[in-house]
Every structure is written in structure tokens, then in C-alpha cells.
Amino acid sequence: MVAADLVVRDLVFGLLLGCVFSVVAHGLNIIWGIVKVINIAHGEFIMLGAYGAYFLNLFAGLTPLEAAPVDAAIGLLVGYAFYYTFLHRELRDKETITLQSEMVTLAATFGLSLFVSNLAIILFTGNPVGINYNPGTLQFGYLHVPLAALYVAILSVLIITGTWLFLERTFIGSAIRAYAQDVTATELVGANPAKVASLATALGFAVTMAGGALLTVWIPVGINPLMGALYAPISFVIVVLGGPGKMWGSLVGGLTLGVVIDVVQAFTTVEIAYAAAFLILIPVLVFRPEGLLKR
Questions:
Q1: pTM
Q2: DSSP string spanning 92-127?
Q3: Is the model more confident about 262 or about 23?
């Protein structure tokens, strides 16, 4: 019999874990939902964000929370380079994303994924590293909540809220939303489609790498070149659960996955908990293929 206090603890930790899962997946959601490109290399850039936080901590003494904005700035530059290197030639002057474009971008990002992961093994070796960041705990009766996880959860929600406000309340955001709905409509609002798509891609990479930095709080000894193999599938499941292109969908999908993983662990093993979390994708695809979030 599982004690009620253990279930409550796992529920709280599941919500905290879900927040960081949300922001890790949010960058993929932006690129997939707006530019209509499925970035197979998403996990590798989560990994690079985590290593960025590690080296910023090692050489500059920055905490993962302080490293996240630096990673985001680097991600912006990487995103622009990624767009003009891998996507621009295929997507420019096209009103819709054709099957050929999908195949070309999938192949390109898959090749990039292999290149980055193997280069990371050469540069960083396969030995896992981590960041020692422990600002203490917050106690609520029998419940002890790590402040690091709480800070990361708050910052994750703020990042998702910030991107939503940017897209909903600014002219550039309106142009990006127009691009997501109809490429031709982008020109009608006075914007250049290529510049809009490159900005959306850069924004997605910025959030992805910032998410990788925040993720290091949850894996204090687990930063390694192959970590993307775990967090990329998690990100894809979250985006599908919430609905591609729905900014709050990242949070809905992330919280759902985090709660399922942590609560199921109270009754069974970690492996079965992750399997159960991925299993919920099947009924969602069958009954709500547009995602759990309505809009």
C-alpha cells in the first residue's frame, strides 16, 4: 500500500519536473508549429545547452539559472545559422511546406544530429559531468521542496509566458503567427517571410538551449553527449500531447508527462513509469490528434 504522503510528494515533484520538460520541449514546439520543420537534432541542442551551463559554471561560476540567458543568446545565433544553412534554400519562396521539403529537412536535421552527437563524444568524451547547485529546500509540513527545482519551474513558466506574450502582443509576433498560418499572409502584414522564419527558428533554438541549461538542475551528474537520445523523444511526446504550435501546449504536455512519470513511480519502477508516460500518446493520437489543448 502506497502512503498518501508519498503520492502527494510525487505529484508535486511531477509538476516541478513537468515544468522543466515543458521548456525543454518548447523550442521544438516553436520550430515545428511555426516553421513546420521537425528538428531531429533537437536533443543534441538540449545537450549543448546543458554543456554550455556546465562550462559557464566551471569557468565563470554561473549557476544554471544564470547560465540560461547566456545559453539563450548563443542559441539565437545558432538558430539563425541553422536556418540559413539547412532550411533557407529549401523553404524560400514556397507558400506551403511540400512533402519534398519535409523529407529534405528531416534528412538534413538527422545528419546534423549524428554529426553533433559524435563531435560531442570526441570533444567532451563519454564521461558524465554535472553542476553542484543546491540553494536549499523549502519545507511544507512533511514535504521538502528543493529550491533549485522550484526556481527552475518558475523560470520555465516565465519563458513560456514570455514567448506567448511576444507572439500575441507584438508586431513581429503577429508576423510570425501569420507565417505559421499562411506564408503569403506574412507579406500582407509587411514582413519578409524568410526573416520571419529565421527569427522563429532562432527563438526556438534560444529556448531549447536555455532549457538544456535549466535541465542540469535535475541531472546533477548526468550531462553527457548522448543525453539527447532521452530528451528528444520526451520533447516530441510533449509537443504532440499539447499540439504543435500551441504555446501553452508545451506546458500542458510537459506537466502531464511529468506527473505521470513521478506518480507512477510511487507504484512501480522508473522504467515502467516512463513507458506509461509514452503510452498515453496513443489514445491522444487516436481521439485528439490536434493535442490536448483546444487552442
A1: 0.93
A2: TT-SS--HHHHHHHHHHHHHHHHHHHHHHHHHH-S-
A3: 23
